[in-house]
């Protein structure tokens, strides 16, 4: 055997060994379908975790024939525009992942992208809600022209993180029939904390009776890098003229 022939055989052997050192075998995977996300709701500004359920979740296996090691190829997941991290295929039909705290309130589609480029998705499968809740009370709700009602806004944190809240703003309809005034709100709610904002609602003296209206309040909040508002509304009504008390005296007949 000449030196040239031996060198060629050695080169071929080394090439085959290199190709065999890292091989990828695709497991048969039917069309994947995403059926359920648990939990299906998260809070804006708060990181979380989800379990994505479905069928046909299979991954290619990359095998190192030289070292004997084998591992599944990674897949990608997202909720709306946000990429999820720590994405793992835990079992057939179950993928777990970490959700970032960057999604504002809204409904979002959820999608898994497999190494071959195929995608399994579900529309409106995950909902992000506000980290606070606002409740509004107006007493009394029926006002005559010139009368005034007490307004109370209750602001509650529903997360285990401090939330900055404020300001609180009010708008009454129909315009010109009611005037609302609220106290100041600029505070940090402790985890699961509650605060209240007092105010008044006055029916305009010259307003026309019989009008159905509403008082709407918005409460600003900020958490992490997100800023938004929570909204609450109460029905109000403008009834007849201001109630007057009068005594009628009848003169005795002559």
Task: Give a structural overview.
This protein is 7% helix and 55% strand. The protein is mainly beta and 254 residues long.
Salient structural properties:
single chain, 254 residues, mainly beta, five-stranded mixed β-sheet, 7% helix
Brief overview, please?
With 254 residues, the chain is mainly β. It contains 1 helix and 21 strands.
Low-confidence stretches: 10-29, 243-250
Largest sheet: 5 strands, mixed
| Helix amount | under 10%
Our estimate of the beta-strand percent is over 45%
Name the strands of the widest sheet in spatial order.
Answer: 3-12-11-7-8
Distance between the termini: 153 Å
Radius of gyration of CA atoms, rounded to a whole number: 33 Å
Order of helices and strands: HEEEEEEEEEEEEEEEEEEEEE
General shape: elongated
Mean pLDDT: 84
Number of strand segments: 21
Q: Which structural class do you get from the secondary structure elements?
A: mainly beta
Number of H- or I-type helical stretches: 1
């Amino acid at each position: 055997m000449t030196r040239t022939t031996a060198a060629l055989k050695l080169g071929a052997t080394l090439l085959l060994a290199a190709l065999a050192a890292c091989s990828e075998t695709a497991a048969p995977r039917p069309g994947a379908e995403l059926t359920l996300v648990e939990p299906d709701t998260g809070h804006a500004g708060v990181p979380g975790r989800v379990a994505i359920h479905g069928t046909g979740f299979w991954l290619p296996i990359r095998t190192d024939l030289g070292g004997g090691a084998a591992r599944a190829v990674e897949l990608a997941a997202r909720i709306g525009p946000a990429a999820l991290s720590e994405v793992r295929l835990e079992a057939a039909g179950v993928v777990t992942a970490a959700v970032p705290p960057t999604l504002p309130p809204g409904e979002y589609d959820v999608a898994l992208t497999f190494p071959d480029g195929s995608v399994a998705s579900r529309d409106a499968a995950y909902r992000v809600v506000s980290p606070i809740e606002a409740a509004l009370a107006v007493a009394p709700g029926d006002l005559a022209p010139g009368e005034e009602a007490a307004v109370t806004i209750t602001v509650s944190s529903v997360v285990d993180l401090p939330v900055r809240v404020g300001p609180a703003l009010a708008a009454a309809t129909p315009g010109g029939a009611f005037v609302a005034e609220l106290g100041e709100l600029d505070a940090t709610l402790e985890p699961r904390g509650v605060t209240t904002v007092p105010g008044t609602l006055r029916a305009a003296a010259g307003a026309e009776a019989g009008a159905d209206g509403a008082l709407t309040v918005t409460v600003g909040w900020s958490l992490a890098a997100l800023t938004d508002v929570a909204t609450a509304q109460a029905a109000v009504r403008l009834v007849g003229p201001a109630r007057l008390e009068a005594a009628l005296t009848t003169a005795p007949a002559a």
